Amino acid sequence: MGEIVVQPLSTEEVIDVFQYCNEQNLAVTIRGAGTGNYGQAVPLEGGVVLDLSRMDQIEEIQSQGVAVCQPGVRLGTLENEARKMGWELRCYPSTIIKATVGGFLGGGSGGIGSVAHGNLRDFQTVRALEVVTMEEEARAVKHEGQAVHEILHAWGTNGAITRIWLALTPSVEWSQCAVAFDTFDAAFDFSEKIATGVEWKKRLVTTFEWPIPSFFEPVKQCVREGKALVFFMIAAEQCEALEDEARKDGGIVTHAGPYTGLKARPLLSDYTWNHTTLWAIRADEAYTYLQCGFDPDTVRYQMRKLKERFGGEIIFHMEFMKNADGRVIPGALPLVYYKSEERLNEMIDFCREIGVFVANPHVNNVEGGGRYREDNVQLLAKKKYDPKGLLNPGKMITFHAKDPAR
Ligand SMILES: Cc1cc2nc3c(=O)[nH]c(=O)nc-3n(C[C@H](O)[C@H](O)[C@H](O)COP(=O)(O)OP(=O)(O)OC[C@H]3O[C@@H](n4cnc5c(N)ncnc54)[C@H](O)[C@@H]3O)c2cc1C
Prior knowledge:
binds flavin-adenine dinucleotide, alpha+beta
């Protein structure tokens, strides 16, 4: 629990708060909307919760497609405003309506749109950011180019992001489409073909093994009993062609219609990325999940091995995404039917043994979560910007303050 909540309105106020906390040796946990998993925004040592949700101004959407905004802007608001000017977000989490831009940079990675534009870290999507430091003299510093990686996904342990320059992409008229297949293999083959086919303009390609679709009560019109399901966001002008292709490959098109923005009903993205896990947990609290990256060349072998070893304890939920080299790869947030911590760790170890990358969501430190940078830049920035270790203490476990403040 934090002991006090502070809601600054400007960078100058954040500097004042940090200056005071530094003098008083008070811990500070930064918070956007609090949707981060891993317990990222949960204070471990009390102190101040710095709620940045009122720093919510979009300052500018530049003509070359860069949004300049404060950290508390909701991603959904930015998407809506950008679309009015012919732009849209390159990638966003399924929590778009609630989550803030600062929280996404501080704790997120990618999501809808990543199949075309990679993750937040890739392709210079974050052009620059301003960060307030917890140095003896708190100050605002601008990080540009590669230097943004010192602060991205550091869980607010090495500074408060107070201004963001975020690259957008030209907006597209999208459609949503759902296709059911008799088998997961057929669904996976089809989704892989569309995800990797350069001729298809897409924002989302998500594949669910049965019984995951059975958890999607509000969109049951898109579900067919016992069948695997694929959800797409596809350029409107290609929707009919996608439907034809799906039928040719044995699929049943269960929904096809325009995407009218975040208020669209149904909003298929509400069932994808980590929202899938949420629907599963709602149906049965024993479900949890992993965050995986499969090898595009051996993915079928890897999935078979996992099934042979763990059977119905692992249920596939694939999310295609572009990696930093420009290749579209099968990412995944498979559901796991939780039995024990040992069994979960056995599954993680086995994944790694057969070459499946795992970002473990069952830890609450930056290093263990799978997005810690091997070049250590997040830790080095913490040593520089937060030498007393006051920012989100306990979440960067390789950091040890020379002169612990608390
Ligand atoms: C159901 C569900 C689905 C999700 N789906 C996705 C997904 O598809 N993709 C994805 O990447 N993530 C996903 N997430 C994780 C999370 O929603 C996103 O990362 C989201 O962008 C976090 O935004 P937030 O404003 O809620 O941040 P918070 O939870 O408030 O903060 C996240 C972390 O960033 C730090 N932080 C917040 N603001 C700042 C700031 N201004 N400066 C420095 N540090 C800061 C916090 O201290 C915390 O450590 C999901 C989570 C849930 C619960």
